[in-house]
Amino acid sequence: MKYLEQFLYVLPAKKIQLFWIVVLFVIVSTLDAVGIGLIGPFMGLAVKPEFVERNVWLFRIYEGLPLKNTNQFVALIGLSIIIIFYLKSFLYYRIQSYVLKFSYTQQVKLKLRMLRTYLALPYSFYLKTNSAQVVQNISNESASFTYSIVIPLLNSIANIFVLIVLLLLLAKTDLLATVSILGMLLVAIAPFHYFRHKIAEWGRDGVEANTETIRIINHAIGGFKETKLIGCESFFEEQLNVQTVKYARAASKFHISQQLPRIVVEVLLMMFVVGFVSLSLVIAERSENLISVLGIFAIASVRIIPSASQLITSLGVLRNAKPSLDKIYLDLKELEKPEVVKYLEMTHSSNSGKAVEKTNSSLNDYEVDKLNFAESITLKKVNYSYPESDSNALKNISLTVRKGESIALIGKSGAGKTTLVDVFLGLLIPQAGDIQVDGRSVYQNLRTWHQSIGYIPQSIFLMDDTIKRNIAFGVPNHLIDEKKLRYAIELAQLSDLVRELPEGLQTSVGERGVRLSGGQRQRIGIARALYHEREILVLDEATSALDNETEAMVSEAIRALSGTKTMIIIAHRLTTVEHCDRIYAMDKGQIVKYGSYQEVVLESQNAKLS
Ligand SMILES: Nc1ncnc2c1ncn2[C@@H]1O[C@H](COP(=O)(O)OP(=O)(O)O)[C@@H](O)[C@H]1O
Ligand SMILES: [Mg+2]
Question: Looking at ligand 1, which residue's alpha carbon is closest to its atom 12?
């Protein structure tokens, strides 16, 4: 069954654990059945203790015991029933706690595994996936994996065993009655089997509505200023309303369908017990062992009704959760796609071939591999085209940066500057060409390459945390190096700001840095790159969003670094790149001209003027 295969793939636990759980379930259900099985004879004997002599087995046991009369023997049977039930209940309790602990642990592990997977995937995955989906998968789908798959599945297994054992017991007591009960259960299950596609569909609707809800909230709240000023609150409300109604419809239909089995099974079973007794009396006149048969049936019904209806309910929940399982499964499977495997091997070059398992099993430590960079970085005939795009965004790009040099990329919007930088950063993998550091390809060890570059985009990403932790991004508190921190702040020209703030470095920047100005945010980005001591700095329009005065200040901070760091700068304002050693002009994915500032910028300006 495909379901089971997917389940086992997603389940983080070792499969042997599942096996033991099943074994425990078998033991409990057997004890359960033995206990119930004893109740029948017990009731029969209670009415007519002399029956003991008629049953070979019972009589042998009776003879072997030093008892005065059969009444004592019956009491002894009663006692053993009590003990068995105690034992069973205790075991049942222990197993349930074990199973629940197991299930919730799976949720924790699955969340970690998913986060690890999403972090390991190449950037190209995020060019086609909305982050709302990733949020939804890690926070909600992994939870529903526990509630709607692990627990119901284990419950189903338990219930199937209980049912099998009880039905076997019944079959031994009265075959006809058992066959009728079985038939009745099938009648009760049939409609739900018929509805299984509907149930899965409701599940899919629910998942979709939830993902959309996150997306809509992200849009409305993320663009709060725009929402407010354009006055389109009702637009988002309407969208949210549609999704909520869709969810409510799917969820209510599903939950109502979940109530039905219990109701149906109850009615059928009651009908059956009463009908069976009446018919036995009227037609067959089988009153002899009716009491013991009834005893078994009464208890069996007490166990069969909940077990059967729980089983049907669990099966429904499992169906309903199929879309969730599909989503988790597909995203985890993403790691096994050939192009992703290739990418993982580049980032985990130390043990290639095992890249997928490594990603699955270990979190990376805080250690930074140092790149040995002595001479130059060379791009050789790099070609890149975006997935699902037929034209090349980069065509035959070749360039060289020597250590300590600063180069600039200029060109119209859409010329391919950001694409080139993303390829340079090792975020996008070119279809052809190579990037080499001192003659060695960076694709032999992408992780080291990543860890050699400081990246400052147009709008840097800030966590809703303190300035200190935003500069030492990703470093745990106790490992933050105060000296490096002060140095980075000094060089990024943030000292004045930090001094003026009442809480200094501990000032919280707010979500995405709302409490800072654009220039301050960018300088935190520079400080971050400096704190992490990256040898190569890449600035993609890092100062473009700033006003002239702030830009001058940030540019000053950047210029102060030239010579000590190797830099690639994309800038909007040409004055920002005046100090660069070389300027590359790009157009339509190609380098159309390069040389000194004088040669590329001034001469073309002069050419235009004349
Ligand atoms: N994710 C993407 N998928 C497909 N095409 C893209 C994607 N991102 C950018 N492009 C295209 O690549 C070209 C270069 O874009 P970009 O590198 O961002 O230009 P620049 O940074 O120079 O303004 C543009 O034509 C753009 O439409
Ligand atoms: Mg750009």
Answer: 393
Rounded distance between C-alpha atoms, residue 538 and residue 565, angstroms? 10
Q: Does any ligand 1 atom lie closer than 6 A to the CB of residue 125?
A: no
Pick the closest to residue 360 from 7, 11, 2 (CA basis).
11
CB atoms within 10 A of CB 175: 10
Q: Which of 383, 384, 385, 386 to mutate to test the pocket of ligand 1 (most atoms within 8 A of CB)?
A: 386
Q: What is the DSSP letter of 371?
A: P
Asked if residues 93 and 85 have their Cβ atoms less than 8 Å apart, the reply is no
Distance (Å, whole) CA 524 – CA 530: 10
Tokens of 196: 């299984």
Does residue 368 lie in a domain region? no
Distance CA 484, CA 481 (A): 5
The model's pTM is 0.80
Handedness of CA 275, 276, 280, 284 (dihedral sign): positive
138 in contact with ligand 1, CB cutoff 6 A = no
Ligand showing the shortest atom-to-Cα distance for residue 417: 1
Task: State the burial class of residue 277 (Cβ atoms within 10 Å of its Cβ: 0-12, 13-18, 19+).
Answer: middle
Q: Residue 136 domain-assigned?
A: yes
Q: Indicate the average pLDDT of the chain.
A: 84
Instruction: Compute the residue count for the chain.
Output: 610
Q: Does an H or E element contain 499, and which?
A: helix 495-500
Q: What is the pLDDT of residues 297-337, one digit of tens each?
A: 666 667 777 788 888 888 888 988 988 899 999 999 988 88
Examine residue 194 and state whether it is found in any structural domain, yes or no: yes
Q: Is 389 in the pocket of ligand 1 (CB under 6 A)?
A: yes
Model pLDDT for residues 347-402, shown as the tens digit of each residue: 775 544 455 565 555 445 556 666 778 889 999 999 999 988 888 899 999 999 99
Q: How many CB atoms lie within 10 A of CB 233?
A: 11
Query: For ligand 1, is residue 393 a contact (CB within 6 Å)?
Result: yes
Choose one of 419, 423, 431 to mutate for the ligand 1 pocket test, by most ligand atoms within 8 angstroms of C-beta.
419
Look up the domain containing 97 and give its range. 15-334
Total domain count, the chain = 2
Cα 571 to ligand 2 centre (Å): 9
In a domain, 158, yes or no: yes
Ligand 1 atom closest to the Cα of residue 420 is 17
